């Protein structure tokens, strides 16, 4: 009876397209699984022991954060606030030849946020704008003073002309400071901070070659004045 049952099961499996040879009586739990591509030996005693769960799906890579959006014309928000206010309110006495120059000056400071905080643009008159410009504060109350601002820029532009920031600051302390500064005016008084700051603005031009920049660095130390080039291309006499 058992043999007939095994034959009947095998026939049913063959009709279904997969032939299974059941173990004959007395042959234990071993048998042969026959498929269209061949046969595989099986062991009923080991059934389920060698089976492994499917590998876990690999999680997708994390989505990168969106790039930080630039706020205003500068890369630093505090500098943007300062530069926009300065360019808008100080049309009669601009403290920077362009908003790009303002951003460069502000962002070059050891503390850009501190530079901007010490120079709030509260009024548009020449004296008020000068107080809110690079040559305004004298360095009191922890603010970056005019000499620190000028020498930070000079040391970055002209590293071979002045040995260090401290030497430049000592030299700067004896240069006459203006009551009102205009970055776009044609200055005649050489040797002043006015002329030197205008020369620094000129040296910020990225298109200058090394020789031209070195000439400007020399003129900054000597306090020579040249006609400034401002954003609108018009200079005030």
Tell me what you see in this structure.
With 237 residues, this protein is mainly α. It is built from nine helices and three strands; from the N terminus they run αβββαααααααα. It has helices at 2-15, 77-89, 99-108, 112-117, 126-131, 146-157, 165-172, 193-203, 210-222, and strands at 20-21, 30-35, 38-43. A three-stranded antiparallel beta sheet has the order 1-2-3. Strand 1 (20-21) and strand 2 (30-35) form a beta hairpin. Helix 6 crosses helix 7 and helix 8 (193-203) runs antiparallel to helix 9 (210-222). Keywords: Signal. This is Secreted protein.
Give a short overview.
Helix content is 39%, strand content 6%. The N terminus is likely disordered.
What labels would you give this structure?
237 residues, mainly alpha, 9 helices, 3 strands
Task: State the low-pLDDT regions, or none.
Answer: 1-48
Percent helix: 25-40%
Cα-atom Rg, whole angstroms?
A: 40 Å
Q: How many angstroms does the end-to-end distance come to?
A: 122 Å
Draw up the topology in text.
Elements: H1 2-15, E1 20-21, E2 30-35, E3 38-43, H2 77-89, H3 99-108, H4 112-117, H5 126-131, H6 146-157, H7 165-172, H8 193-203, H9 210-222
Region (Disordered): 26-71
Organism: Sorangium cellulosum So0157-2
Protein name: Secreted protein
């Amino acid at each position: 009876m058992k043999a007939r049952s095994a034959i009947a099961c095998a026939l049913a499996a063959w009709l279904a397209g997969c032939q299974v040879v059941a173990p004959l009586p007395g042959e234990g739990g071993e048998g042969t699984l026959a498929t269209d591509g061949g046969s595989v030996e099986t062991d009923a005693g080991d059934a389920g022991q060698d089976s492994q769960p499917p590998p876990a799906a690999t999680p997708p890579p994390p989505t990168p954060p969106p790039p930080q959006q630039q706020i205003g014309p500068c890369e630093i928000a505090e500098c943007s606030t300062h530069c926009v206010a300065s360019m808008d309110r100080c049309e009669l006495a601009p403290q920077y030849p362009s908003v790009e120059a303002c951003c460069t000056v502000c962002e070059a400071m050891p503390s850009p946020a501190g530079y901007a905080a010490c120079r709030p643009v509260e009024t548009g008159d020449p004296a008020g704008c000068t107080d809110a410009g690079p040559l305004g504060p004298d360095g009191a109350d922890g603010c970056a003073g005019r000499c620190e601002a000028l020498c930070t820029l000079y040391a970055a532009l002209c590293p071979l002309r002045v040995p260090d920031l401290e030497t430049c600051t000592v030299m700067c302390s004896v240069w006459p400071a203006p009551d009102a500064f205009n970055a776009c005016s044609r200055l005649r008084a050489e040797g002043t901070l006015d002329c030197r700051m205008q020369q620094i603005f000129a040296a910020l031009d990225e298109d200058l070659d090394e020789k031209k920049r070195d000439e400007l660095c020399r003129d900054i130390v000597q306090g020579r004045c040249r006609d400034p080039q401002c954003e609108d291309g018009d200079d005030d006499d």
